[in-house]
Structure formats: C-alpha cells, structure tokens
Amino acid sequence: METALGVFGIEASDAGVRRIRLPERGRPMGAGSSARSGPGAAAAGQITEYAAGERQVFEVLLDWDSVDVTHRRVLETLREIAPYGETVTYGELGRQSGVDDPREVGVFMATNPLPLVVPCHRVVASDGLGGFGGGLALKQRLLELEGALPPRLDLGI
Question: Which one, of 157, 153, 74, lies nearest residue 113 by Cα?
C-alpha cells in the first residue's frame, strides 16, 4: 500500500496482522493482493492515517503465532512504555521487560515483524539513534513525524 512514507506491505490472517514490511530502500516491492476487509484492511487504513499525521494509536488485531514468548514480551512491553511522541532506550526496554542484555533487545527490535504498530522506531541507543530495519533515514522521519527526536542526538543523516 502506498503512503506518504512509502510503500508498505501487510500480511494478515483471520486472527490478525502477522507481518508489516517497511518500504524497501531502493527496491520496489512486488505487487500483491489487497484485502478489502478484516485485520489487513484495518491495518492498511491506520498506517495510511499514521503516515499522514492523522493517527497516533494503532487499534488492530495482531497474530502473534510466529513470535516466541520472550520476543513477544519485549514487544508488548514496548507498546506499553513508548507511546506516540516518546522514545525509550534499548537498556530501559530490556529492564522493563526482563531482558538483561540491551544487545538482545536490539536483536528483537531488528526482527520485529510488526513495525509501526509495535513501534520499534521509538527505541534508541543511549548515545544516538540506534538502528532500524527500514534504514536510519526512515527512523528519523518517523520520529520527526511524532515530534520524538531527542534533542541531544546528532544524527548525521
């Protein structure tokens, strides 16, 4: 689906959204079918609204079947502690979700199957922006959209 932030892909089951693909840097995404109803259609509409600056909270069903228990706990904690317009560090997210190693939290963020809806772009390093599967330019854009860029960051982008 085309948005103000680029082309996103959504995979959904009857249980809910199971994967969101971020716009790929420099590579077009393949064409797919678009759902007219159900969790996929709801997610598409809400992502379009978010990209236009018209939505702050996602209200879609999520299909967690492919996510292991620890990864899911970290992702659910993220949704609770990093609302729109705020960031959290990898270390703080780890402490709040019971994961000792911030690098492990980074791996969980890098493999987040539900970016935007589970806002891994809001997780930053203690000394900078950190990484992002959609690229640092998109992460910066998302945080700017939300007014969430910590002022001390020198992004160099």
Answer: 74
